[in-house]
Write a structure and sequence with these properties.
mainly alpha; 84% helix; 5 helices; two-stranded antiparallel sheet; 137 residues; Four Helix Bundle (Hemerythrin (Met), subunit A)
Length: 137
């Protein structure tokens, strides 16, 4: 019963999240799956490692597919996503924790930058309606 409630809550969070919040959730999920994969490689649980790392790869694939190449930032992100994806695939195939940790570092930096951008956008949005101390809707 508790598990069903938790699942329903998680589903509701996803269904009502902004695109920006969903992107942050995907970055966090990707990090979680990479961490699980790294731990599974260390524990020599190859099937678990493969499953977790493929989930991380799927998230990166989604990021690549949804990039709008009309923006310069997308042209900078695509090679990073491609490199990270390749590190995950190769690290998975070779059971190389160093490669997996490199991929994790890149995703963590992107996640942190995304979180900062969201925070800055919220702050700017919050101050747009205020001029000279009075609210301008």
């Amino acid at each position: 019963m508790v598990n069903n409630a938790a699942e329903a809550y998680k589903r509701q969070q996803i269904m009502t999240a902004t695109p920006e919040a969903l992107t942050l959730m995907l970055y966090n999920g990707c990090l979680k799956f990479i961490d699980e994969g790294i731990q599974s490689v260390k524990d020599e649980k190859w099937e678990d490692a493969n499953t977790s790392l493929q989930k991380a790869q799927n998230i990166i694939s989604e990021f690549r597919i949804t990039l709008d190449m009309d923006y310069d930032i997308s042209k900078q992100l695509m090679p990073l996503y491609n490199y990270t994806y390749d590190r995950l695939v190769e690290g998975n195939m070779k059971s190389d924790v160093t490669m997996l940790e490199e991929a994790r570092g890149i995703i963590k930096e992107l996640r942190d930058a995304w979180a900062q951008a969201m925070k800055k956008a919220r702050q700017e949005k919050g101050t747009q309606g205020v001029q000279g101390g009075s609210y301008v809707g």
